[in-house]
Amino acid sequence: MKPRILIVDDDEAITQQLFWTLSDDYDVVTANDMQSAVRRATVYEPAVSILDLHLPPETESPEVGLRVLEYLKMHLPESKVLVMTGSTAVETRNACNAVGADEFLAKPFDTEKLLATMRRMMPPALDLV
């Protein structure tokens, strides 16, 4: 069985790019807002979640993404979270660290860096090495 990944991003193009990049090695589930992210995380219990911070309805603020991150870390403490965002503000990174983000990757992302980060984040029993 492939390790499960949850992609949470409201940008359809990025979601599709991530899906196609990762679907050979992982069981990929997607969500485009907080409600669907919470539902899918609860049902599918991903090993790793890739989370954009700027989600509807407040796409200009990282607040919704931070709430999703907090939910993931509280309800799935063994699950890892990769925050993938275009926001480079130190305050945003500090807020993510305070809630428990495991890794950061800037948008636009490099595919090889993404794949290396995913391999590093996978729990040992699920690692595809």
Overview of this protein structure:
It is a single chain. The protein has 129 residues and is an alpha/beta fold. It is built from five helices and five strands; from the N terminus they run E-H-E-H-E-H-E-H-E-H. It is globular, with a radius of gyration of 13 Å.
List the helices and strands and how they pair.
Elements lengths: L3 E5 L3 H11 L4 E5 L2 H11 L3 E4 L11 H13 L4 E6 L4 H10 L3 E4 L4 H11 L8
Parallel strand pairs: 1-2, 1-3, 3-4, 4-5
In short:
By secondary structure, the protein is α/β, with parallel strands linked by helices.
Key traits:
129 residues, alpha/beta, five-stranded parallel sheet, 5 strands
- Overall residue-averaged pLDDT value: 92
First and last CA, distance? 14 Å
Biggest sheet statistics: 5 strands, parallel
Our count of helices gives 5
Taking Cα atoms only, what radius of gyration do you get, to the nearest Å? 13 Å
Instruction: Count all strands and give the number.
Output: 5
- Subunit organisation of the chains: single chain
Roughly how much helix do the residues carry, as a percent range? 40-55%
Strand order of the largest sheet: 2-1-3-4-5
Portion of residues in beta strands equals 15-25%
Tell me, briefly, the overall form. Answer: globular
Structural class: alpha/beta
Q: Secondary-structure element sequence?
A: EHEHEHEHEH
As residue ranges, the low-confidence spans are none
